[in-house]
Amino acid sequence: MDAALEQSRRGGHLWIFGAEPLLASECRIYVYNLALRLGIPVKGGGLKEGIEVFPRQDRLEDGELGNAIRAPIGVHRKTNRRYWFYEAEPTPEAQFAYLDGLKKLTESELRTFIEGMSLPEAYRPVVAAPYIPTVSSTQFPEFRILDYVRTTRKDSRNWWAKCPSCAGVGRDRSGDNLAIQIKNPRFYKCWAGCTKEEIRAALGQPIHTRAAV
Ligand SMILES: [Zn+2]
């Protein structure tokens, strides 16, 4: 495999170029395992110092952004200058010619390299698994919204799910109108404006109002 070493603001960047789009998760498995096998410390996983690996995430959800990085031969936003690859003359023409001549990594090669490997334990992201209801509880008299909806994502405060009432009329295709407070899942809200009564009715769990005395 060819890799290209580029100067940077602090130290350098070692690039591996793909012949086609490659899965971040698979690139990360390769780079982490290779670095650790060579005894190169990788930042994270308990280490404060070491190389940094990009991309930093295995995957992104719709609408999420990964970490920004200056692209090869791009101008650094902080220093307002370019950094060159060591192996070619410091002109854009020579640099591009050098990059064009490098062998690019294909997906099938990458898959051969990582066969049987996974991301080293210490570097696996700590993510709470989404709450998936198994059976609706009959032994608990209290209504629990999380027993009835499958969450699609999570942020610092809320689980997000398809609003059952919206879904009933063909809305909420993206499945995130319903916010359910993580701290106290008894609180939930449809951002399209469905009422609690409508949501409960859509789930076949209408709110029983006490008969007036
Ligand atoms: Zn709704």
Overview of this protein structure:
By secondary structure, the chain is α+β, with helices and mostly antiparallel strands. The chain has helices at 24-37, 92-101, 107-113, 164-168, 196-202; strands spanning 4-7, 12-15, 151-154, 158-161, 178-181, 188-190. A hairpin with a 3-residue loop joins strand 3 and strand 4 (158-161). The protein starts with a strand and ends in an 11-residue tail after the last helix. It binds zinc ion. Zinc ion is lined by residues 163, 165-166, 177, 190, 192, 194.
List keywords for this structure.
213 residues, alpha+beta, 4-stranded antiparallel β-sheet, two-stranded antiparallel sheet, 5 helices, elongated, binds zinc ion
Bin the helical content: 10-25%
Mean pLDDT: 87
Question: What's the helix-strand series?
Answer: EEHHHEEHEEH
Provide the β-strand percentage band: 5-15%
Distance between the termini: 80 Å
Largest β sheet strand count, sense and barrel closure:
4 strands, antiparallel
Overall morphology: elongated
Ligands (ions, cofactors included): zinc ion
Strand order of the largest sheet: 3-4-5-6
Rg value? 25 Å
What low-confidence regions span 5 or more consecutive residues with pLDDT below 50?
none
What is the tally of helical segments? 5
Task: Briefly note the structural class of the backbone.
Answer: alpha+beta
Q: Compute the number of strand runs.
A: 6
Furnish the topology, listing elements before pairings.
Elements: E1 4-7, E2 12-15, H1 24-37, H2 92-101, H3 107-113, E3 151-154, E4 158-161, H4 164-168, E5 178-181, E6 188-190, H5 196-202
Antiparallel strand pairs: 1-2, 3-4, 4-5, 5-6
The chain binds zinc ion (ZN).
